[in-house]
Write a structure and sequence with these properties.
The protein is an alpha/beta fold. It is built from 15 helices and ten strands. Helix 9 (234-255) crosses helix 14. The structure holds NADP nicotinamide-adenine-dinucleotide phosphate (NAP).
């Protein structure tokens, strides 16, 4: 769907110059119906055929040597993130569980150490507090991390919410909660951790995204979906946040010069049986658990992220996508193969506006990334309280 933002006549009335008035800007206001249908098709296809498409993949995923590598995994107390953290630690990586429920994470570590005892050296795993519903908490986490001056080889932005059927909720920072937890807060974390990632390069930022981004549409002037132009549903909130994440990641990947040694990838884990459906009505949850043939276990769902976080060939692939004319970052499918995100994710103009708007909303200057690459300090509006 498209609308004409201003007619030449209207602009003449407003006294604007005639050349400008002749320019008719067409603003897309929603996905076209073909894009919408394709989005549902991709989702249904993934749901029905993911097991067949990924049948070549071993489970669990064998990992390359990662003994001297450090990983930060957000939302690692449950579902896919829990599996990612455990498997990286068991493969010898140093893992930092960045979580809001630190007690749950410490209990998990205790259990994993007990299960692992006698199989090798104790797991090198620790917990740090991070609540993505608070941008102050994100800044505090990044400051604490950067102060340690330790290495960081992969930031895995896994934590996410999908409050299915719930009414719209606005965080205390003033943002729609899906947009904040799934996009804005991980974007802030990624930018603020750039100094550590640059110091440890080659390094990566891996965002756990979703096939459902292809049902998303982002209006950069209405990221909260509060203007009334679009009706809010939890589906709109979730899918928009996932699309915004791909758009932001694509611009970030391009802005990071090859010399910085950091690459950005988004990942689809597949349809996975986790707590993500915790807000569904009990009866739907029961049905969800009855279709295990189609749905991946968290271990199966962790494979594409583990691949994106550790596979040595991914670096070359991501670098090749930094070329002038390719508009999107790497998107790794649930079968660990590169895939193409939705047509809307290729919209360069909107991606650039999402980039600018995101930096504004997370309280960073528009040249934050360039300055951090140059080794300069950057101030964020958040983090003082
Ligand atoms: N499951 C699927 O079918 C599927 C499909 C596509 C994409 N994904 C994506 O996969 C990622 C992981 O989801 P999952 O399926 O594993 O769901 P999950 O079991 O619900 O796990 C989500 C994790 O995110 C954490 N989290 C939620 N809000 C947070 C906040 N404000 N601050 C910090 N951590 C927070 C949760 O912590 P608490 O335990 O403290 O709540 C939990 O550890 C998400 O990004 C999701 O969108 C999932």
């Amino acid at each position: 769907m498209a609308s004409v933002s201003a007619s030449p006549e209207k602009e003449k009335e407003n006294g604007k110059p005639s050349e400008e008035a002749a320019e008719i800007k067409v603003k897309k206001e929603a996905l076209g119906w073909i894009e919408w249908m394709m989005g549902w098709f991709y989702l249904a296809y993934e749901m029905l055929f993911q097991r067949i498409v990924a049948s070549n993949l071993p489970n669990p995923m064998p990992l390359p040597p990662i003994n001297d590598l450090t990983f930060v995994v957000t939302g690692s107390t449950s579902g896919i993130g829990k599996e990612i953290a455990r498997q990286l630690a068991e493969a010898g990586g140093h893992v930092v569980m960045a979580v809001r429920n630190t007690k749950a994470a410490n209990d998990l570590i205790k259990k994993w150490q007990e299960d692992w005892s006698g199989k090798g050296l104790p797991l090198d795993i620790e917990v740090m507090e991070l609540d993505l519903l608070s941008l102050d908490s994100v800044v505090r986490f990044a400051e604490a991390w950067n102060t340690r001056s330790g290495p960081l080889h992969a930031l895995i932005n896994n934590a996410g919410i999908f409050s299915i059927g719930e009414p719209q909720k606005i965080s205390k920072d003033g943002y729609e909660e899906h947009m904040q937890v799934n996009h804005l807060a991980p974007a802030l974390l990624s930018v603020l951790l750039l100094p550590s990632l640059i110091r440890s390069s080659p390094s990566r930022i891996v965002n756990v995204n979703s096939v459902m981004h292809s049902l998303g549409f982002v209006d950069p002037e209405d990221m909260n979906v509060t203007s009334g132009k679009r009706k809010y549903t939890s589906l709109v909130g979730y899918t928009s946040s996932k699309l915004a994440q791909i758009m932001f990641s694509s611009v970030l990947n391009k802005k990071l010069p090859t010399e910085a040694g950091i690459n950005v990838a988004c990942v689809s884990p597949g349809i996975v049986q986790t707590n993500v459906a915790r807000d569904l009505p009990k009866i739907v949850q029961a049905a969800y658990h009855l279709i295990p043939y189609f749905i991946f276990s968290p271990e199966e769902g962790s494979r594409s992220t583990l691949f994106a976080a550790t596979d040595p060939q991914l670096v070359e692939y991501c670098e090749s996508l930094k070329t002038e004319d390719w508009p999107v970052c790497a998107f790794i499918n649930h079968d660990c193969r590169p895939a193409n995100p939705s047509e809307e994710a290729h919209n360069v103009e909107t991606s650039n506006r999402v980039w600018e708007k995101t930096l504004e909303l997370i309280g960073l200057p528009s040249d934050a990334v360039e300055r951090l690459i140059e080794g300069e300090q950057v101030n964020c509006k958040y983090g003082s309280s």
